[in-house]
Amino acid sequence: MTERRPPRRSASRPFPPMGAMTSGPLTRRRFLERAGLALGAVAFGPALLAACGSDDDSSSGGSGGSGGGGGSNDIAISNWTSYMDKPQLKVFAQATGISVDYREDINDNNEYFAKIRPNLSKDQSIDTDGFVLTDWMASRIINTLEWAQPLDEAKFPNKANMSPALANPAFDPGRRYSAPWASGATGIAYNISTTGKEIRSIDDYLSAPGTKTALSEMRDTMGLFMLSAGADPTTPSYAAAGPAFDKLQKAVDDGEITQFTGNEYVGDLGNGDIAAAIAWSGDVAQITVDNPDVRFVIPDEGGMLWSDNFMIPYTSEKAAEATEFINFFYDPANAAELMAFIQYISPVVGVADQLRTIGGEAAELADNPLVVPTEEFLAGLTIFGSLDDEEEVKFDTRFAEISGSG
Amino acid sequence: MTDRDDEGRKTARIAPWALLGPGMIFLFFFFFLPLYTLLRMSLSSSESRFSDPSFTWEWANYTEAFSQFGEQFFRSFLYAGAATLAALVIAYPLAYVIAFRGGRWKNLMLGLVVVPFFTNFLIRTLAWKTILGNEGVVVSVLRTVGFLAENEGLLRRPIAVIGGLTYNFLPFMVLPIYVALEKIDPRLVDASRDLYTNTWGAFRRVVFPLSLPGVFAGSLLVFIPAAGDFVNSYYLGSTQTTMIGNVVQNQFLVQVDYPVAAALSFVFMAIVLAIVTIYARSLGTEDLI
Predict the structure, then answer these.
(1) Do B156 and A108 touch (CB under 8 A)?
(2) What is the pLDDT of residue A386?
(3) Is A391 on the interface with B (CB under 8 A)?
(4) For residue B161, which of B238, B221, B66 has the smallest C-alpha distance?
(5) Which residue of A137, B15, B257, B270 could cross-link A109, Cys pair, CB 3.0 to 4.6 Å?
(6) In chain A, where the domains are located
(7) Within a 10 A sphere around the Cβ of B256, how many other Cβ atoms?
(8) What is B205-270 written as a DSSP string?
(9) Could you report the per-residue pLDDT of A353-403, keeping only the tens digit for each?
(10) How confident is the model at residue B287 (pLDDT cuts 50, 70, 90)?
């Protein structure tokens, strides 16, 4: 669940300057992802590029304030690329008087963690009043390291609109420290013109002809393989995951899976270079519109459900203002506008109705299970449970070995 | 030796140090200090994943780096060596033509070598995915000719990674060789011809030896970054083509194992140093430069 963002918006991100490119692996990696997205978008033609235009207009939004410790009412928020409908920031500023220095500087949970770790482990500010990370990383931040501070309940009346299914995760019972920003599903995407057959399971995926890729995000790939091997990812243990790891290992050794990727698979799926990929719903929701050959399926054995969660670092002195920010996006009307733009699953109840009220393309989204999931769709999805440190190391090590980098 | 000299002599002895000063200070803060921290980190261990590593003379990090990742080390240097060789084969004739036959087009041609590299490194690498893709021209031509079977492609194979490395570092080979060739006095070639050698002989005995410093510099500028690169392998390669850069990236970002990542970096540096030394000796570069 790391490098996912809808490709069309990412394509419009201006690329960072060359100087940054040369500053080593840490910063390089994020460009890889963006570039992958850009290429993907280019491959998918003018429709996507046209969609990019609107994004750029507002890309420099925000107050330019220094964030964190900055001006009186300014807050700084870090989020994933293409996770914001920027004009909404102005609406928020008008409504609350809080201006947001909004940064799209999260491209990968691990990478962002490496970035904030040195400061947060030494009680130093990271100049951010809120960031958005995936469930398992949220668990690490909230529980293992205790780097999050509670949301200001008084400033969060819209919390009542939170989807009940998301209100009590194991890592944050009662959602005291976090609020989901958006959710998505992990399943299998395939290009029917290359596979020549519909895919319904991991075994179908493995036996399909052509190049297959999996996600470098361990919990997504392993989640699907564990379900396929009959293990339960909701209560994961390294011992129980053994057969799933073996299955993955065999697939790699046999050359069935040749690459572990972020969402660069998007472009390759469209042009037929990849036959099938373990993929994120939001990415595919968008390709399928332009290329009906590309399809997304939750395997019969089940798929994964994940959320990205808004949290406030313990170093922020603007918890109240940051909570007002998340509160704003828990208003169903605002949430619907956001989801119409980012096309992931909203954690807010009532978004579907609001989408229909907006009408047009947004209304169509209300009927897309990848954006407004049906009960049936959700029933096929599982959340990867938390791993303690020791188990996580084992999972990560074995996964890295299989993917060739460990 | 101290007070004996006159003013002029003293200045002469202080001046070099004064001139070296800024460079030395820079080296100290941005090379020796980081290197020392890296060395300390590579010998550290941490109690749990997220506790700060402490210095414990943890040599096991090195044994792990050697024993577990030998394959990726080998691959890194193999691919980088192949890319360096390929770059040399492409760059030398190119630099030669620009230097000796470029005439008034010289600057333009040099510009053309560099211009593609104004484009972002990643975009260029990713462009190769399109070029080498199964739907691309290259694969379809190779399939028609029979070099590739119908279901074979080029991507996710070592050749794609080596190709990407060669392409991405090519200018670093062209430019030093060009500079070396450009400096050669054409009268030397004339002189060798006067001494009854043929064109090939003039090249082999005069031009090529004189261009060796360029070849040496170019090889290093290609080999070292290519060996440490992980982008080409990540995007153009597969699970079977991972290089040491990919391992370091994984250890550092995913596994959060800074000590092992540091040890890997140190082992990498040591191997590079050894290879470069052997290379320099075999070319006799000390004499050349």
Answers:
(1) no
(2) 84
(3) no
(4) B238
(5) A137
(6) 184-304+381-402
(7) 19
(8) IIIHHHHHHHHHHHHHHHHHHHHH--HHHHHH--TTS--HHHHHHIIIIIS--HHHHHHHHHHHHH
(9) 999 998 888 888 888 888 888 888 888 999 898 888 889 999 999 999 998
(10) low
Superfamily (CATH H level) for A184-304+381-402? Periplasmic binding protein-like II (3.40.190.10)
- Residue A204 CA, chain-centre distance (Å), reads 26
Nearest C-alpha neighbor of B289 from the set B199, B224, B236, B217:
B217
pLDDT at residue A286 greater than cutoff 80? no
Cα distances from A63 to residues A101, A102, A320, A335, in angstroms, run: 5, 8, 18, 22
Whether residue A68 has pLDDT greater than 80: no
Distance CA A101, CA A61 (A): 8
CB B153 within 8 A of CB B139: yes
In chain B the domains, ranked by start, together with CATH numbers, are 69-288 (1.10.3720.10)
Torsions phi, psi for B80 (to 5 deg): -65, -40
The interface predicted TM-score (ipTM) is 0.79
**Closest-CA distance of chain B to residue A35, Å:** 6
Task: Using the predicted structure, report yes or no on whether residue B143 has a pLDDT greater than 80.
Answer: yes
Interface test with A, best of B54, B253, B260, B268 (most A CBs within 10 A): B253
Q: How far, in Å, CA of A199 to CA of B272, rounded?
A: 47
The mean per-residue pLDDT over the stretch A146-159 comes to 96
